[in-house]
Amino acid sequence: MSLPTVELAKCRLRPWRAADADALVAAWADPEILQGSSPPEDRSVAAAMRWIASAEDRCERGLAVDLAVANLEDDEVVGEVGLSSIDQRRGAALIGWWVAADARGKGVATEAIDAFAAWALADGGLVALVAEISPDNVASLRVAENCGFQPLGPNAWVRKR
Length: 161
Ligand SMILES: CC(C)(COP(=O)(O)OP(=O)(O)OC[C@H]1O[C@@H](n2cnc3c(N)ncnc32)[C@H](O)[C@@H]1OP(=O)(O)O)[C@@H](O)C(=O)NCCC(=O)NCCS
Known about the structure:
- There is one protein chain.
- With 161 residues, the protein is α+β, with helices and mostly antiparallel strands.
- The protein has a single domain, classed as Gcn5-related N-acetyltransferase (GNAT) (Aminopeptidase).
- The protein contains six helices and eight strands.
- It has an eight-stranded mixed β-sheet with strand order 1-2-3-4-5-6-8-7, sandwiched between helices.
- Helix 1 packs across helix 3 (45-53).
- The model has no long low-confidence stretch (mean pLDDT 96).
- Bound molecules: coenzyme A.
- The site of coenzyme A has 22 residues, from helix 2, strand 5, helix 5 and helix 6.
């Protein structure tokens, strides 16, 4: 897998860049994002720079695929979509996402995640994506439904090819 750029109607999926470090640090400081995803313990700008700098390597090694969700107008980061725990033998991975507070409620997550999932599940890619979502995360549950995920267990949703 290599990191793609995908143009959509409301946003763009693209590789992370060094200039995005401040947006990543801001996201890591958002209590809702902290609760819904697994940010690192070190959430400094330097740590964000390291995380961004190693994204291509993580992808090449099949460890993770992390893309920025950016505004079409100014290319500023408004969110993230990513794959982790990639199991090539089973063709499965965990999928995660967040959207910055001031960009929520406009359908950005739905559009970005639907497109990212379709890309990951395209021929030659994975066959199943699992999203771990707390039952009280109503917005994320709605996004999962919008994007064709089916309930798999108490905290898990799956979208298959
Ligand atoms: C979940 C999250 C990604 C949604 O981003 P978004 O861009 O606002 O999502 P969208 O606008 O595409 O869609 C949100 C959906 O949730 C619904 N929604 C939002 N808040 C809601 C609430 N409190 N109760 C019910 N539905 C709600 C919206 O109506 C919309 O559904 P619809 O398309 O059927 O109308 C964003 O809120 C977020 O990043 N939260 C914090 C991090 C997080 O939870 N990450 C996911 C971990 S599993």
